[in-house]
């Protein structure tokens, strides 16, 4: 018969071994890389939804669901979301205080983050998203857009949310960008006749769309699109240096996964309605 001290020793040894085994998955989980993603604290349908710092629990936006799907396909990475004003996201990326964001390409942005490059240019095969932008005007405005130039007005004022890139609008002698705090403010200014046009997403993932808000206000979306924009998953230089293989793996996954079903699902929701492909507005 074993003595009591011996039994106690065996029991403690067994418990210690069990605790060690139970701790191993926790250690593995802690070793996963948390990808800190920053995006704007204003809605940009269908990419981002909701206002402020909170991430909506349901339908957070097509970009967010795409990111969750993208990171789930890569072992050893988790996603952490942060919502801030857009310029703050850009600043934090440059400082290495956030790891990634989705942005269009501009040469000056190469100084603040890393794009998927090919032969000195962003690689469109590893792009995150592509959308087209249309001009929107009041239905009774006399100026027109024929796909090549705006006619019937000498000076055009276009409202854009603060932090968005300026647009080149061929035709008028003078084009001014009026920057506002939100897309809602843009529409209010247009309705009041204080500006001539706003911009809206009008083609996403290959499908023509029109915002139900714009339709309800009786505004006119001008086709064909004025501008196409390609969004890239941009990593901070600090993150790319620490995790070069992970950065490359996420970009490679984007070649395979454009999340078209996710975007199409969002296009079916009430806030965006598909428009006819032959719509000439």
Task: Based on the model shown, name its key terms.
281 residues, 9-stranded mixed sheet, globular, disordered C terminus, alpha+beta, two-stranded parallel sheet, disordered N terminus
- Helical residue percent band: 25-40%
Q: What's the gyration radius in Å?
A: 25 Å
Spatial gap, N to C terminus: 93 Å
Extended strand count: 15
Mean pLDDT: 84
Count of helical regions: 8
Secondary-structure element string: HEHEHEEEEEEEEHEEHEEHHHE
Secondary structure layout plus pairing:
Elements: H1 4-30, E1 33-40, H2 62-72, E2 77-84, H3 86-95, E3 100-104, E4 117-118, E5 121-122, E6 129-138, E7 144-145, E8 150-151, E9 155-161, E10 174-180, H4 183-191, E11 197-204, E12 207-211, H5 212-216, E13 219-221, E14 227-235, H6 237-242, H7 244-256, H8 260-267, E15 272-274
Parallel strand pairs: 1-2, 9-10, 9-11
Antiparallel strand pairs: 3-14, 4-5, 6-11, 6-13, 6-14, 7-8, 11-12, 12-15
